[in-house]
Specification:
By secondary structure, this protein is an alpha/beta fold. The protein contains 10 helices and 15 strands.
């Protein structure tokens, strides 16, 4: 089989099965595992898969820069944001993560809602300036421009000194095996810290993130209260998550 044919075969497997197991592909095609791994390295270099131990998973489309991500699945993000905003109770304290879906949540919050919003995103804080009864706490630190959020040691230390009723957390990848992932190690650490400071954590994931993975794990499934997604309940990955005991909140 030519290299181009192997490439098409691997991409087809990712689309159909949601993962590639290198040893299985090698046995199926009668080639060495090293050949499969080389093909996967090439695909990963093009952003077409996320390599993991033993094979690969679909790469998240949410690794583009902040401006580009604002044009990805805007309807799905609005649906997720609408449901997420409904979880915020008057008088409660909310930790709101950064990113484009979290920004949609900020826009979805009622303008007259009296609450406290804690965020490490200057974009989120600016979006809530027109909410007269929302008290804002902005956590500072080094700004990670990809997601327009503060990260690093200073931001983590600041986050460790707050607490909240609810955390609404964004990720770039949602996968039954890989868990909840994102593309930057410091951002992943910040997300873990934010989630640890809330009584409940719900993950915001529009459908294009379902079944994909990024390089750095944020949290295992047992650390979150639920997943809010516009992916259909019949989606194979959503079904797998339900079997694993994940509370899936539909946003349709």
């Amino acid at each position: 089989m030519l290299a181009a044919e192997r490439r098409d075969h691997l991409l087809g497997l990712l689309a159909r099965e949601g993962k590639i197991v290198a040893k299985d592909v090698a046995a199926e095609l009668g080639i060495s595992e090293d050949s499969v791994r080389r093909d996967l390295r090439d695909l990963a270099a093009e952003g077409l898969c996320q390599r993991v131990y033993g094979g690969a998973l679909p790469a998240s489309p949410a690794v583009a820069d902040y401006a580009a991500r604002q044009t990805v699945a805007p309807d799905g993000k609005r649906k997720v944001a609408s449901v997420a905003a409904g979880l915020v109770r008057p008088g409660s304290a909310l930790i709101l993560d950064g990113g484009t879906t979290a920004l949609a949540v900020a826009h979805a919050l009622p303008r007259d809602l009296a609450c406290t919003v804690i965020t490490h995103s200057p974009t989120i804080a600016a979006a809530l300036l027109g909410h007269p009864q929302a008290e804002l706490f902005l956590l500072g630190g080094r700004v990670f421009k990809h997601s327009a959020v503060a990260c690093g040691a200073a931001a983590v230390e600041a986050a460790q000194n707050v607490s909240a009723d609810l955390c609404l957390l964004g990720v770039t990848g949602v996968h039954p095996e890989a868990g909840l992932t994102t593309g930057d190690a410091e951002e992943a650490a910040m997300k873990r810290t934010l989630a640890s400071r809330a009584a409940d954590t719900y993950v915001l994931a529009s459908s294009e993130k379902i079944g994909t993975a990024s390089r750095f794990r944020v949290l295992p499934w047992e650390k979150v209260s639920g997943l809010i997604t516009d992916a259909a309940p019949r989606n194979a990955v959503v079904k797998q998550l339900t079997v694993l005991g994940v509370k899936v909140v539909p946003a349709d």
